[in-house]
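Researcher: Quick test of sequence recovery. Tokens follow.
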């Protein structure tokens, strides 16, 4: 990849362009763009998250703003603690890419519910399961 192509790839990724479109405009393969982006901190959501990514690159916690201690050769940290990460997740659910969200109707109470990660769920709660399975003693009683 020439220096001009590297500069163009960097500019396009920082502007939020995807790998395929960046590769087409820069005149290189998509895999070359991906490899270059990974080596230079432009991979994945990095080009799309804007300010939050800039904070992670600078070593500042996304939630509280405390300085982060980054370790070379390890995935970059975006949060200073588990508490900050969970607080941010709960405060920004629209920014989390959940790929395994399923919608069901509860076999016990008939209520609609959504669940993440379990495609075989039948009941909305443990109480509904107990009530349907054993005929009582559920949370609703």
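Model:
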């Amino acid at each position: 990849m020439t220096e001009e192509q590297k500069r163009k790839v960097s500019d396009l990724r920082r502007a939020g362009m995807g790998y395929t479109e960046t590769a087409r405009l820069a005149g290189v393969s998509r895999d070359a763009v991906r490899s270059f982006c990974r080596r230079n901190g432009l991979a994945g959501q990095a080009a799309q998250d804007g300010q939050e990514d800039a904070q992670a690159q600078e070593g500042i916690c996304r939630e509280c703003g405390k300085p982060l201690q980054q370790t070379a050769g390890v995935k970059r940290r975006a949060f200073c603690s588990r508490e900050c990460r969970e607080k941010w997740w709960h405060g920004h659910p629209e920014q989390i890419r959940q790929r395994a969200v399923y919608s069901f109707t509860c076999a016990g109470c008939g209520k609609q519910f959504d669940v993440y990660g379990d495609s075989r769920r039948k009941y909305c709660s443990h109480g509904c399961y107990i009530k349907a399975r054993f005929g009582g003693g559920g949370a609703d009683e």
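The radius of gyration is 22 Å.
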